[in-house]
UniProtKB/TrEMBL annotation:
GO terms for biological process: proteolysis. CDD domains: Peptidases_S8_S53. InterPro entries: Peptidase_S8/S53_dom (IPR000209), Peptidase_S8/S53_dom_sf (IPR036852). Residues 1-20 form the signal peptide. Residues 181-455 form the Peptidase S8/S53 domain. One of its GO terms (molecular function) is serine-type endopeptidase activity. It comes from the Bacteria. It comes from Plesiocystis pacifica SIR-1. Residues 531-559 are annotated as: Disordered. The lineage of its organism: Bacteria, Pseudomonadati, Myxococcota, Polyangia, Nannocystales. PROSITE patterns: PROKAR_LIPOPROTEIN. This is Peptidase S8/S53 domain-containing protein.
């Protein structure tokens, strides 16, 4: 059975999966759907060879029109830049692409290729599979510098952020750990505008991480964030664009990004750019197969697994986003964590297993890696809001043991394309990565699992049980607190070398969820603008209609700028109000909007916006639309805006609502 799976960064906008329905064979779907390669235009095929020194051309047996690469050597220009050959296990992967950059393989072309792969003794049986593409989703931002600064202050407070002044003289003793962001940005991004990314998601993650691991841009910890391309396609029909990247990636793309991150870090050892440790941030994932969440028989999936095993053998600490629900009003449609967050249930390889894979297995006693206890291959990170409630787009049965604040992030002194206020498990993952990198910069002698253990053990217990299988016995959900983790890791050490005098512990959410100053600024800013208030404008409540998308549905990129930068609800038993500010870029483009509310039992209800309310949202002269809500039981809310995009047609974007 060959079934497609998609890769997408994990923020708060809606996405539509472009997957073939599970249950098919090599050429079609048992339920009558399209074969997966017809739902994945330009999709390459990944196969696993029996022997690492095998040839991907299979003795010149490939059908006409197909070309091949050794995946971890030739399928990305950045891999070709690596000085050393891939290790043994990674040399087994072959990539097959049809024709030139503008060619699309037909049903017959794919059937012919699979027939050759299935018949070849050089290919490991039943591993060849289509490497389907996924899309990038975006999230919320802010348009006011005052609001941005207030949001940044609230976010920093709620994650236990530490300033450079608080770290003090200990900054001079840091040995900065490396951080690799495997995402939308080229490794060559920098001064050359040719490498400016199409999508800023990777830059946004980097800004979040830098704000935690090197507060206030302190000179002592100013080691560059390393970018590695995993989203190289502008559209589902395009060939990879490795300079500027795009909105789409695939499982093989992310596998190559992980390998590039580790191989590049290894090559820097012994040079002036050497760093003692490596953290990898992976704010991306794909929908698991319903009957087999960790399907390692498929070569594209296994390539990610092997790349992560390689990273683990080299001592990298990998944090992976647990994933979001594409349809918050239909919580049952997307359950459990996305892949590769599911790999938290798989053990990292032992020293001997690493050696058998050709991944090394030796370690420097001053930089230990291995332990006799089972440790996860990756650490999944879930998201909570400032009140420790699950995010509005959280997945049923998808909360891992380690969570972090994932709502209303903000970095830098002012808002910008790479410093947006975002919501989603991408944000949570970046918080964990930033905290781990800061801690490891002070304690590089700790094993990777020990660093993760400090984050977990000294986080705030939310009182809920983890819903995701892990291999190290963590049962309670705990929220990362940067200061508490570092304080514990430095306990008993000289504070001039490791800040052991921080005197902080993780704590429950503040009564105002740390958002008091933000709402004070919000009230001040919005009071100066024009507003229209409605006592009605919503349809009668209705239950959501939840049905899986058809197999041939293809997703499109989301708008990068959010429709509603600030959607807030003031909860009051006698006077509940919804405040909406619409970005001016969308004035006149909003076709419809649906408010989805979840009550205290988690049951969703839809409320459609009616004509006058839509007209107000489309009116450029109205800075704030206020709706009086006759809904008393609201715990979570989102708004789905359908807009008429001049280049892509109708698009739907989900805005998360913040509660006062």
């Amino acid at each position: 059975m060959r079934t497609s799976q998609l890769l997408f960064p994990l923020l708060s906008a809606t996405f539509i999966l472009a997957c073939a329905a599970p249950g098919g064979d090599d050429t079609g779907d048992d339920a009558g759907g399209d074969p997966e390669y017809l739902t994945c235009p330009s999709a390459r095929v990944i196969a696993l060879l029996e022997h690492p020194d095998g040839d991907c051309d299979l003795d010149d047996a490939l059908p006409e029109g197909w070309r091949h690469d050794k995946m971890f050597e030739e399928s990305s220009p950045y891999l070709e830049d690596n000085m050393s050959a891939p290790p043994t296990q990674l040399r087994r992967y072959c990539s097959y692409i049809f024709g030139g950059s503008d060619d699309v393989g037909t049903d017959a072309d794919y059937q012919a290729l699979f027939a050759v792969l299935d018949a070849s003794p050089a290919v490991t049986p039943d591993t060849a599979a289509v490497d389907c593409l996924g899309r990038l989703a975006q999230a919320n931002t802010t348009e006011s510098e005052e609001l941005h600064a207030a949001m940044r202050g609230a976010f920093r407070t709620n994650v236990g952020w530490l300033s450079a002044d608080e770290l003090g003289v200990s900054l001079d003793a840091m040995d900065p750990a490396d951080i690799a962001v495997v995402d939308t940005v080229s490794p060559k991004y920098g001064d050359n505008p040719e490498y400016d990314p199409v999508n800023f998601h990777g830059l946004q993650m980097a800004e979040l991480i830098k704000d935690i691991r090197c507060p206030n841009g302190a000179e002592q910890c100013r080691v560059p964030v390393r970018f590695h391309q995993a989203m190289p396609r502008v559209s589902i029909y395009d060939s990879p664009e490795y300079k500027t990247g795009g909105h789409f990636g695939s499982q093989a793309d992310i596998a190559m990004g992980i390998y590039d991150a580790v191989a590049s870090w290894e090559e820097r050892q012994g040079s002036p750019d050497e760093t003692p440790r490596l953290v990898i941030n992976l704010s991306a994932g794909w929908e698991p197969l319903p009957d087999n969440p960790v399907d390692l028989a498929r070569a594209p999936t296994r390539s990610v697994y092997d790349a992560l095993r390689y990273a683990s053998c080299k001592g990298a600490l990998v944090f992976v986003a647990a994933g979001n629900n594409a349809e918050p009003s239909c919580p049952g449609e997307h359950t459990g964590v996305t892949v590769p967050a599911t790999f938290e249930g798989l053990a990292a390889p032992t020293s001997s297993e690493c050696a058998a894979l050709g991944f090394g297995g030796e370690e420097d006693p001053a930089r230990p890696i291995f332990t006799d206890q089972a440790r996860p291959l990756v650490y999944a990170v879930g998201g909570v809001d400032p009140r420790d409630q699950r995010l509005a787009n959280s997945r049923v049965d998808g909360q891992p043991a380690l969570v972090a604040l994932g709502a209303n992030s903000a970095t830098r002194e002012a808002a910008g394309a790479d410093a947006l206020a975002l919501t989603g498990t991408s944000v949570s993952t970046a918080v964990a990565s930033g905290a781990a990198t800061l801690l490891w910069s002070y304690r590089p002698e700790l094993r990777p699992d020990e660093v993760a253990a400090y984050l977990y053990a000294h986080g705030w217990g939310t009182g809920e049980d983890a819903e995701v299988t892990n291999v190290d016995g963590r049962a309670e959900i705990r929220r990362v607190h940067v200061c508490a983790a570092l304080d514990a890791a430095c306990e008993g050490l000289d504070p001039s070398v490791c800040p052991s005098n921080l005197d902080c512990v993780a704590s429950p959410p503040a009564e105002d969820a740390g958002m008091g100053e933000f709402f004070a600024v919000f009230d001040s800013v919005t009071a100066e603008g024009s507003s229209v208030e409605f006592d009605g404008g919503l349809s009668e409540p209705e239950a959501p209609s939840c049905s899986p998308e058809g197999a041939s549905t293809l997703g499109r990129p989301q708008p990068e700028v959010p429709v509603c930068p600030h959607c807030n609800i003031d909860r009051d038993p006698d006077d509940t109000k919804l405040y909406m500010t619409i970005d001016p870029a969308y004035a006149g483009t909003i076709l419809s909007a649906i408010l989805t509310t979840l009550d205290s039992d988690g049951d969703p209800t839809l409320h459609r916006f009616e004509g006058d309310l839509i007209d107000s949202l489309n009116d450029l002269t109205v800075e704030m639309t206020v709706l009086n809500l006759a809904i008393t039981d609201i715990e979570v809310a989102t708004i789905d805006f359908t807009i008429d995009d001049p280049t892509a047609g109708e698009l739907t974007q989900t805005s998360t609502v913040t509660f006062r």
